[in-house]
């Protein structure tokens, strides 16, 4: 029996080239995970805020004599954060090489039960030792300001409700990431319009949950059809139109769209005429700037002069 030759390779331009050297950007779910933060300065304060916003539990190790004001506030005064923080007023305990930590040891084991390690201290040698200890236990670790000792990086984040956008330079320029993030924020505010991108995401998410209740299949043909329907909706409706979704429109959209053949109705057919009218009003107001007014006046004047000259030329003389 002769073997069939392998199929020909696909056209080279059919797939994008692989750009090596990047990081895999993920939305890491830390809810109820235990994060160890070593250090209590300004960088540690930022790390603490980030992991608390991800609903993590935190073990913080740092001498109380040098804590950043925000760290102090989170540990003792923030009513929502205090219950999620376990604070140790000391330095990280490094086990002695001659007396490794064992189960019956009286020495503290600061990595016990930890899911993620973040160090933000000025002691480079201690940071590297913590990194090595964490790696022995396969615990993901980030060592501030030492990119080679990082399993992941912190980027500069744009946050608007459920919407999170991270700008990362792969540890090469944190300040540059912050500058780029600030420039992007202004553009994103324009893109979201009066509702804001965060609220638009909230409303689309609410619609998605209602659709999931009507079509609860996961992984099957119904789930795939549900996904295609949401994709078509987001491709068909503009961001401004998606921002107009309310309870009444969502139910009508599902009743007359999903339930009747799975078509995506137009925004206008769902009662969005008023929103469109307001949108056009906004565009007219935006267009009617001083520059546009000047250009319009000049155009009208030039047109009138040319028309008058042509008419005089064509009029018979008496």
Name a few traits of the molecule:
318 residues, Rossmann fold, five-stranded parallel beta sheet, two-stranded antiparallel sheet, extended, Sirohaem_synthase_N, porphyrin biosynthesis, NAD, Met8_C, precorrin-2 dehydrogenase
Task: Walk me through the topology.
Layout: E1 34-38, H1 42-53, E2 57-61, H2 69-77, E3 85-88, E4 116-119, H3 124-136, E5 141-143, E6 156-160, E7 163-167, H4 174-192, H5 197-214, H6 221-236, H7 239-242, H8 247-258, H9 273-287, H10 290-314
Parallel strand pairs: 1-2, 1-4, 2-3, 4-5
Antiparallel strand pairs: 6-7
Can you describe what's shown?
- By secondary structure, this protein is of the alpha/beta class.
- The chain has helices at residues 42-53, 69-77, 124-136, 174-192, 197-214, 221-236, 239-242, 247-258, 273-287, 290-314; strands at residues 34-38, 57-61, 85-88, 116-119, 141-143, 156-160, 163-167.
- It has three domains: 34-154, NAD(P)-binding Rossmann-like Domain (Rossmann fold); 155-192; 197-274, no CATH class.
- The protein contains ten helices and seven strands.
- The longest helix has 25 residues, at 290-314.
- The model is unreliable at 275-291 (pLDDT under 50).
- Keywords: NAD, Oxidoreductase, Porphyrin biosynthesis.
């Amino acid at each position: 029996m002769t073997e069939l030759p392998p199929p020909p390779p696909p056209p080279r331009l059919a797939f994008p080239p692989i750009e090596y050297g990047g990081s895999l950007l993920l939305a890491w779910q830390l809810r109820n995970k235990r994060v160890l933060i070593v250090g209590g300065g300004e960088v540690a304060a930022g790390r603490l805020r980030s992991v608390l916003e991800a609903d993590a539990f935190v073990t913080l190790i740092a001498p109380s004599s040098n804590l950043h004001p925000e760290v102090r506030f989170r540990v003792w005064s923030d009513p929502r954060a205090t219950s999620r923080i376990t604070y140790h007023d000391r330095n990280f305990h490094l086990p002695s090489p001659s007396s490794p930590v064992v189960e019956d040891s009286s020495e503290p084991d600061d990595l016990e039960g930890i899911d993620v390690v973040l160090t933000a201290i000025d002691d480079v040698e201690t940071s590297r030792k913590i990194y090595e200890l964490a790696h022995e236990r396969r615990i993901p670790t980030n060592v501030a300001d030492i990119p080679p000792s990082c399993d992941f990086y912190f980027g500069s984040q744009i946050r608007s409700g459920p919407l999170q956008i991270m700008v990362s330079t792969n540890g090469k320029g944190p300040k540059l990431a912050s500058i780029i993030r600030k420039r992007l924020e202004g553009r994103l505010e324009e893109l979201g319009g009066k509702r804001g991108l965060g609220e638009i995401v909230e409303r689309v998410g609410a619609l998605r949950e209602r659709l999931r209740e009507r079509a609860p299949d996961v992984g099957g043909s119904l789930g795939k059809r549900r996904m295609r329907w949401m994709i078509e909706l987001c491709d068909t409706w503009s961001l401004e139109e998606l921002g107009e979704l309310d309870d009444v429109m969502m139910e009508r959209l599902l009743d007359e769209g999903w339930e009747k053949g799975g078509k995506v109705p137009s925004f206008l057919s769902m009662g969005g005429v008023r929103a469109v009218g307001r949108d056009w009003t906004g565009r007219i107001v935006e267009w009617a700037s001083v520059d546009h007014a000047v250009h319009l006046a000049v155009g009208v004047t030039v047109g009138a002069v040319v028309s008058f000259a042509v008419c005089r030329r064509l009029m018979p003389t008496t």
